[in-house]
Description:
By secondary structure, this protein is mainly alpha-helical.
Amino acid sequence: MEHSAKFEKVKAYYKSGLWNITKVRNAVVKGWITEAEFEEITGITYE
C-alpha cells in the first residue's frame, strides 16, 4: 500500500508523543493523510 506524502511525518510525530489524537485527526481534515492511514497510525477508528 502506498501512503500519503506526509504519512511518515505524521506517524513519527504521533509515536514520539509530539502529536496527540486530535492533531492526527486534523491531519486527515487537512488532507495530509487518509482516514485509513489515521487508523493505521493510531489504532483507533476515524470518526
